[in-house]
Fold this protein.
Amino acid sequence: MRQEFEVNLEPLLSVPVERELPLRHRLWQQGWLRKGLILIVLAILWEAVARYQNNDLLLPSVLQTAQALFDGLLSGELLSKVSISLAVLIKGYLIGIVLAFALTTLAVSTQLGRDLLSTLTSMFNPLPAIALLPLALLWFGLGQNSLIFVLVHSVLWALALNTYSGFLGVSETLRMAGRNYGLKGMRFVLFILIPAALPSILAGLKIGWAFAWRTLIAAELVFGATSGKGGLGWYIFQNRNELYTDKVFAGLAVVILIGLLVENLVFNTFERLTVKRWGMQRS
């Protein structure tokens, strides 16, 4: 047997070693900075087009819109409209989530449930939610229930389809593991199917949120005009009638900002703490 020996290697000093990335590379790895640069570029383009157009009635500048937004927030008018819209939105969104999970749970449990889900989604998913507003006003009257009805419709089918496709994609190994532990019915769905299908469920929640948010704004444009009150959509509609275009753009900016906040603070945080942390989705 050869005798063991150890060779001491000299440190390689001729090649410079980068101990850390340059500052510009480290900054470029920050997602919030890249998204902020995109927003700045879009604002610059907006300002350039507005100055070239030179017509405040058609397209106000970024500064005019920012001033209208600041005045609306300072007076409390915009905040009150946003609170009205978000209160209705959360109610319809939560009811849609509950109904979607009930429908998909029934679909993965029985053949009748699968036929029911397939038939209902084929019938109602292509139907625009705003097209149901006249019926909602007839059935539920001039109140929040009409808006909640169209919001549930906009959330239910997209979330149900994504959730069901996620359930179908769960591997048979996980299913057998759940059955070996004696999980059946609702416990099987809660402890096996939902965690395994969470990426698809999150995608459905995002799509449902986007559908609900834009449906609410569109519905309030009609609903607010008929009832004389409403949330952010009514604020946009009212200022459009009075030719306050800067306030119209301020209302649209609030719609966009709320969408960005929900996407980056709620959904991205939930993804980072669940599916990305578990290795189910690439960062």
About this structure: The domain at 91-273 is CATH 1.10.3720.10 (MetI-like fold). The chain has twelve helices and no strands. The chain has a mean pLDDT of 83.
